[in-house]
């Protein structure tokens, strides 16, 4: 049976500050890139190949997964975003274990994919459901950013989410790669004014 707590954990209204971060979407929009294609590419090459793959590792080895995720975020704003959302999730107190307590005590990095995985594990949410929820939440965050910027409407945003979640596949190994995202993030760090922090 599916736990009702899953809906809470992956709700876009969960107060972890995800609305502050676009994961490169804002800079892609201002740079004139096809935002749908940028989201599609980032979802496949960074979310699925990186964050979701790391979350799977984090069920058994959160410290290794934290190191992998943090090292894969090549700009300060991407590192700040993953840590900010991760620590904010832990501060909600949905669940407690040694790793999550370590995040609160600033003994662990606390990246978002890893805190999600450890929260799922603590709440008895199975790995597959957790990974799909993480993929959905990160995809929805990018799509909602695009909607806020006016590059797509809600209906097309929902269609994009549906089509990409249909392609959900767990990567065999952690191997995120997106030079475009890294470049967009580097440009975004010096952009003023801006709507999002990443």
Task: Describe it.
The protein has one domain: Urease accessory protein UreF (Orthogonal Bundle), CATH 1.10.4190. Helix 4 runs antiparallel to helix 7 and helix 5 packs parallel to helix 7. It has 198 residues and is mostly helical. Helix content is 64%, strand content 0%. The chain is built from ten helices and no strands. It holds the Pfam family UreF.
Summed up, what is this model?
By secondary structure, this protein is mainly alpha-helical.
Question: Topology of this structure?
Answer:
Layout lengths: L4 H5 L15 H6 L4 H24 L3 H11 L3 H16 L6 H7 L7 H11 L4 H23 L4 H12 L13 H11 L9
Helix pairs in contact: 3-4, 3-7, 3-8, 4-7, 5-7, 7-8, 8-9
Q: Helical proportion?
A: 55-70%
Q: Spell the H/E element sequence.
A: HHHHHHHHHH
Distance between the termini: 37 Å
> What structural class should be given to the helix and strand makeup?
mainly alpha
* Tally of strands: 0
Please report which band the strand proportion falls in: under 5%, 5-15%, 15-25%, 25-35%, 35-45% or over 45%.
Answer: under 5%
Please summarize the sheet with the most strands: none
Task: Write the CATH fold name.
Answer: Urease accessory protein UreF
Overall morphology? globular
Classified in CATH, the superfamily is Urease accessory protein UreF
- How many domains, as an integer? 1
User: Which regions have little confidence, pLDDT < 50, spanning 5+ residues?
Assistant: none
- Indicate the radius of gyration in whole angstroms: 16 Å
């Amino acid at each position: 049976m599916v736990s009702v707590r899953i809906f809470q954990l992956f709700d876009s209204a969960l107060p972890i500050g995800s609305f502050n971060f676009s994961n490169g979407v804002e800079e892609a929009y201002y740079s004139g890139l096809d935002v749908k294609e940028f989201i599609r590419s980032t979802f496949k090459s960074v979310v699925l190949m990186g964050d979701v793959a790391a979350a799977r590792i984090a069920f058994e080895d959160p410290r290794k997964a934290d190191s992998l995720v943090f090292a894969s975020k090549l700009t300060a704003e991407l590192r700040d975003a993953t840590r900010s959302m991760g620590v904010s999730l832990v501060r909600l107190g949905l669940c407690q274990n040694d790793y999550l307590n370590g995040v609160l005590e600033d003994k662990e990095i606390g990246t978002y994919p890893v805190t999600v995985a450890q929260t799922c594990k603590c709440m008895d949410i199975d790995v597959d459901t957790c990974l799909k929820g993480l993929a959905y939440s990160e995809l929805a965050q990018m799509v909602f950013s695009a909607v806020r910027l006016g590059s797509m409407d809600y209906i097309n945003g929902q269609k994009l989410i549906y089509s990409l979640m249909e392609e959900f596949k767990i990567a065999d190994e952690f191997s995120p790669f997106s030079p475009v995202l890294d470049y967009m993030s580097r440009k975004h760090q010096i952009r003023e004014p801006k709507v999002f922090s990443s």
